[in-house]
Design brief:
Elements (H helix, E strand, L loop, with lengths): L13 H15 L11 H8 L3 H13 L3 E4 L3 E4 L12
Antiparallel strand pairs: 1-2
Helix pairs in contact: 1-3, 2-3
């Protein structure tokens, strides 16, 4: 099932709005590789969403390889994949 409906004016799930804004911030360099993303609490305040909504948005970005999460530390912008096809971890 696609993330966005065919009607561009149809309402979108709140997590998609958070996900897209964070992805745009990463693409623009606002959050550079290796740098932390805002905490869940900060995302909730910024976007006016519930904690689970913020968590879901970050989870989707992690599944897409844009973000990595370290338990107890937070979520960070993933390093770009090198020419060898893997990340240096």
């Amino acid at each position: 099932m696609p993330d966005s409906p065919s009607d561009p004016h149809a309402p979108r799930a709140p997590y998609m709005r958070v996900r897209d804004a964070l992805a745009a911030d990463i693409a623009s360099g606002k959050y550079a590789p290796g740098r932390p993303l805002p905490s869940e609490a900060e995302l909730c305040e910024r976007f006016g969403v519930a904690r689970e909504t913020a968590r879901r948005a970050v989870r989707v970005l992690r599944e897409r390889g844009l973000v990595r999460t370290e338990w107890g530390r937070g979520s960070f912008v993933a390093e770009p994949v090198g020419e060898g096809g893997h990340q240096d971890d």
